[in-house]
Amino acid sequence: MNALQVVREAPVAPGLDVERIRADFPILKLQVNGKPLVYLDNAASSQMPQQVIDRLVRYQTTQHANINRAVHSLSEIATNEYEQARRKLQNFIHAREEREVIFTSGTTDAINLVMHGYGRKFIGLGDEIILTTMEHHSNIVPWQMLAEEKGATIRVVPINDAGELVIDDYEKLFNKRTMFVAVMHVSNALGTINPIKQMIAFAHARGVPVLVDGAQAVPHMQIDVQDLDCDFYAFSGHKLCGPTGIGILYGKAALLERMQPFKGGGDMILSVTFEKTTYNTIPHKFEAGTPPIAAAIGLGAAVDYLSAIGMGAIEEHELGLLNDATEKVSRMPGLRIIGTAKDKAPVLSFIVDGVHPHDIGTLLNQEGIAVRTGHHCAQPVMQRYKLPATSRASFSFYNTTAEVDALVAGIRSVQKVFA
To answer: What is the mean predicted confidence (pLDDT) over 291-305?
Structure first.
């Protein structure tokens, strides 16, 4: 079955001590409906280790103050910790300068920042924006809003039956009116890892900037934005063992300096009169008002935790789980995997004959197994496969082969109920 084509070579890395790692995550000790929690909804949000929780508590109990607005000790400490978190994120994604790292409320906020700050300034009537069929709604709707406002046009790259972008068609979409490309690194609905380095190089050869939605990539592989040469890269903290309400926009300094601010308010200014406002330097120009200080510091602790484990080891372990699950599920009659790309992240979307995905999710929950069901904020993908929804199991480095087996057993139980 072509679903077995997902097997790819993982980076060489020492194996993980998964049981030791699982001890760091308090929530994994829970029971749901009297059964041990099997948490397989990591593409929606990962869980948080005790080390990150402790760091948040330490900030809130011994370091909390507003930043950049006082000379008292607590404010200076909070400011230093906030900016240290920025440097940690710079190193984690290998940005050239720390001022290229902007704190946002998440991936959606980061994409909207680029749409307003770059798109509204540089994209106009008759211009074209290239998206792909597999984009999350957060990387579709802002560009549709811009296109409607400016009279621009959205062009869409199709996907094949395996859930891979048709790169020949991507290249054919470019013309003299192409002004911007926005593409996800990894599909949240299919798990497909897109060849974004190749796509970026092709766009740059034609003078077109590229934004990458990295929400599903950063938790699972080492990201080097300089090597990719992307112009913008967006991701969220809550998928990265960090808090909710925090995300990152990486942008090349030269582009960020040319952009207009998305939001106005305190700290994004150098001076204000009723006649004129002079904006602050980057990254502060894009961080109006009191930022999510605690969440930023928590995200810094999360990348410390992941770096200590090693992203290579994480990728290897998760790929093993994906291949194990794919092999076992592929042998089940009456089940079809949706998304069989050769290069995949640890996402397994599937449908079961005669059973609605919501029923699958409900019955699996009775066994303590948490999966995601629905269109996954990727309705164009569902339309491509003529499906209303899928069930999605998504793995993280703290998941185990025993949990894969629990998922398989749970699906068999679902099939018996509806036999």
So the answer is: 97
On whether the CB atoms of residues 106 and 354 are closer than 8 A, the answer is no
Phi, psi angle pair for 119, to nearest 5°? -60, -45
Domain with CATH 3.90.1150.10 in the chain: 2-48+310-417
Confidence of residue 170 (pLDDT cuts 50, 70, 90): very high
* CATH number of this structure's domain 53-308: 3.40.640.10
* DSSP 8-state class, residue 19: H
The confidence score (pLDDT) of residue 14 equals 54
Please give the model's pTM, rounded to 2 decimal places.
Answer: 0.94
pLDDT at residue 279, rounded to an integer:
87
Which residue, 366, 393, 345, is CA-closest to 219? 345
In 3-state terms, what secondary structure has residue 8?
Answer: coil
Which residues are known to be catalytic? 377
CA–CA separation, 84 vs 287, rounded Å?
Answer: 16
Judge: domain 2-48+310-417, CATH 3.30.2420.10: no
How far apart (Å, rounded) are the C-alpha atoms in residues 168 and 267?
A: 45
Asked if 185 contacts 216 with a C-beta cutoff of 8 angstroms, the reply is yes
